[in-house]
Amino acid sequence: MLQIAFGAGLWVTIAAHKYEGSIHFVLFVAVLFWLLTLALFFVTLLDKQDLVPLLGGERWPAANLAHDVAAAALYLPAIGVMIYKTERNAYCNLEQYKHFCLYKIYLTAAVFAGLCCVAYLASLVYGACRRCRGEQTII
């Protein structure tokens, strides 16, 4: 649930404002993993894992782990992009600067990206611990 909330926060923060260049990658990662996480959540909630071809049944916990690994791996460069863009716009954070400034927007997006990455890493550790103990269910 946290991944969905933080991913939506990142998506809305970026999409509601002007963005360009490498921010497209961050938006791609946010939207892709928001949609995938939402789909995995509903499939698990409805207990329909067996209906998913190639990934269902006994492979479902491993598929969730692979999803968490991919999400964490792609959110790390997204965090880097947002930190870089935030630092590039740090000049307009002064009170005397009267023009439109993206600094606070990029800073908020960087925080959401970091929270998403932490949530996916926590889910990864939790899933790996459950898998090591031999538990087959996600919940």
UniProtKB/TrEMBL annotation:
GO terms for biological process: myelination. The chain crosses the membrane at residues 25-45, 105-126. It comes from the Eukaryota. Keywords: Membrane, Transmembrane, Transmembrane helix. Residues 1-132 form the MARVEL domain. It is a multi-pass membrane protein. GO terms for molecular function: structural constituent of myelin sheath. It holds the Pfam family MARVEL. Coiled coil: none annotated. Its main location: membrane. One of its GO terms (cellular component) is membrane. InterPro entries: Marvel, MARVEL-CKLF_proteins. The keyword Transmembrane helix applies. It is found in: Membrane. This is MARVEL domain-containing protein. It comes from Scophthalmus maximus (Turbot).
